[in-house]
Specification:
Blueprint: H1 2-39, H2 93-102, E1 128-133, E2 144-147, H3 163-170, E3 173-175, E4 177-186, E5 192-205, E6 211-214, E7 223-224, E8 226-231, E9 240-242, E10 244-246, E11 249-251, E12 258-260, E13 266-273, E14 278-289, E15 292-298, E16 305-308, E17 315-319, E18 324-327
Parallel strand pairs: 3-16, 6-17, 8-13
Antiparallel strand pairs: 1-4, 2-3, 2-6, 4-13, 5-12, 5-14, 7-10, 8-9, 10-11, 14-15, 14-16, 17-18
Protein name: Helix-turn-helix domain-containing protein
Length: about 325
């Protein structure tokens, strides 16, 4: 009986001897579970980044991505890309967009200087600079604007150099004809070949029911550079080369291609006219250089040019002696 009792007492003593180790093992298991819980906690609960137990995710961008913000006016040196949106991206695509841009991928519609088509040079910047004027008068003196105002509320005709400000102040639209002068120059000594000039009519509407005001106020010298005639009323308008003029001496028409460089610019004059519509349009200039090629969009400060017919509209001219507009038709 003692032996049995002694055996049972030894068992109990053994249990009492092992209990601290069992408690330590249980505590260790609790610690391991606690650590595991920290490792797999879903992101965002405590504001910390994901741990190695979960794949990283791209956080939504809270600031607009860098990039060109404007299109069109070619007097600016906008030759680096185009229509990048400044809106923040919350879908994780912002970083991928930056990576594509870093690799030279163009996005959006082409802007002045942005290339379209093959570009083996690894850059989207065109090797050209452009300067454009759309308020160019015939021989420096003849032009018409249509304006939705009575003659008494129209200021005297400006000089040609002040025409953009004057036209904007009156909400004026080119009447019957728009002359666009484009100066094209290469960025380097290597030649850039201008291959073709295209006309894109993006809107044809009923001519504006406004009055027509003539800007004839004495003619200056007559100089016409490389000239192109465009009939906006045609189904598919084309820029056709026409003879130029230098103080009465004809300048024979020359067709594409042309070559330009940093030291050898070219001036193009486009004469676009309509007798039957209120037309919105722009130009595209194709170029090639050293295995690269692209297309430059030429427009009016980011918007299409606009030309409205003056056929059948009241015609006014300015009397400088009386200081007033008078009806001339």
């Amino acid at each position: 009986m003692r032996a049995v009792s002694g055996s049972g007492g030894g068992s109990a003593a053994g249990s009492r001897g092992r209990r601290p180790w069992a408690l330590l093992a249980g505590a260790a298991a609790v610690v391991v579970l606690a650590v595991t819980a920290v490792e797999v906690r879903p992101p965002g609960e405590d504001g910390r980044k994901d741990t190695a137990a979960t794949p990283p995710s791209t956080a939504p961008s809270s600031t607009p991505s860098a990039g060109p913000t404007a299109r069109g006016h070619l007097d600016r040196q906008k030759t680096d890309g185009d229509d990048a949106s400044g809106a923040p991206r919350g879908d994780g695509k912002g970083e991928r967009d930056k990576e594509r841009k870093a690799k030279g991928a163009a996005s959006g519609s082409p802007t002045p200087g942005a290339t379209k088509g093959p570009d083996h040079g690894g850059s989207t910047r065109a090797p050209l600079t452009l300067s454009t004027r759309s308020h160019v008068w015939e021989n420096g003196c003849g032009h018409r604007y249509v304006i939705d105002r009575p003659p008494s509320e129209v200021a005297p005709p400006p000089t040609e150099q002040d025409a953009p400000t004057w036209a904007a102040a009156h909400g004026a639209v080119h009447g019957g004809t728009t002359n666009v002068e484009v100066t094209v120059q290469g960025r380097a000594s290597s030649a850039v070949v201008l291959q073709a000039l295209h006309v894109r009519v993006v809107g044809r509407r009923t001519p504006l029911a406004w009055s027509s005001f003539a800007m004839d106020n004495g003619c200056g010298g007559s100089l016409t550079p490389r000239a192109f005639s465009v009939n906006l009323d045609a189904t598919r308008p084309l820029a056709r080369p026409t003879d130029g003029n230098d103080a009465g001496k004809p300048i024979p028409a020359v067709s594409f291609p042309y070559r330009v460089s940093a030291s050898d610019p070219e001036v193009l004059l486009v004469n676009a006219r309509t007798a039957g519509c209120d037309c919105s349009w722009y130009l595209e200039l194709d170029w090639t250089s050293g295995g690269r090629s692209g297309t430059l969009r030429i427009d009016d400060h980011g918007s299409p040019f606009r030309t409205s017919s003056v056929k059948g509209r009241p015609q006014y001219a300015y009397d400088y002696a009386d200081g007033a507009w008078y009806k001339s038709d």
